[in-house]
Amino acid sequence: MKPAPFDYVAARSTGDVVAALADGDTHVLAGGQSLVLEMNYRTRRPARLVDINRVPGFDRLEVLDGALRIGPLVRHRAFAAGAVAALRPGTGERAAAVGALGDLLRRVARHIAHPPIRARGTMLGSLAYAHPAAEWPAVAVALDARLELVAAAGSRSVAAADFFTGPFATVRRPGELLHAVHLPLLPPGTSVGFAEHRRTHASFAQLAALVAVTLAGGRVTAARIGLVNAAERPVRATGAEAALRDRPLDDAAIAGAAAAARDDADPRPQPYADADYLRHAAAVLVRRALLQARDGD
Question: Rounded to two decimals, what is the model's pTM?
Fold first, then answer.
């Protein structure tokens, strides 16, 4: 079958991008790791592509107003390589807080796909694509991220919890560019963990769990727990978080949080895994991630 023709725009500014997107049938090309594959299989046939790889500043990674701002061309490998740890926050912020967030992003990024995909794929592309097995959407939801969308008519900010509506579905409109995501810095005293299960090395994540736990005076003052591929949308495991709050991070508290994670999960049956198995996996992975956070593994 002959490939369907499409127009191509090499954008040089944000204005170029939003002008191209205004027709409603133009798709953004950043890393292209999902889009080009779908075009190859003829499952997506955009009338036009707007290539954003030449737009200055889109690869910027910076700390602003207590959050890490990530531009649309920041590649997965930037986090796997520990680029966040090299950042220094502005006046009044703490370098240690950047380090805790950087540690979590590094742990997650090393589980994303394979080195060639990490070299080209982008965090914002993953968020916009909203694959149920993608790691970054769960990170955004668990950390209360805000997503910045820009269109010809103006811009808007959306909470990550409201952005994802289902598998491969978000509130992003056809004419909008996902321009940045803002991840709040983690407070001092926070430790993190991430655990993922795949059937094979080449498979998507069957399920994963990420945790960020803040302690003061030997007790948990805040907990953020996210689950990957545990429902039709990224899951904030609020029951597991509540099981930890105001308790020491001991074996009993970890076991209670892991048990609660079974109820937080609402998984769709997958090939080789029914819902009961996936709920069990959620409990196991939350426990592993919490042990990492506690023991510094």
Answer: 0.92
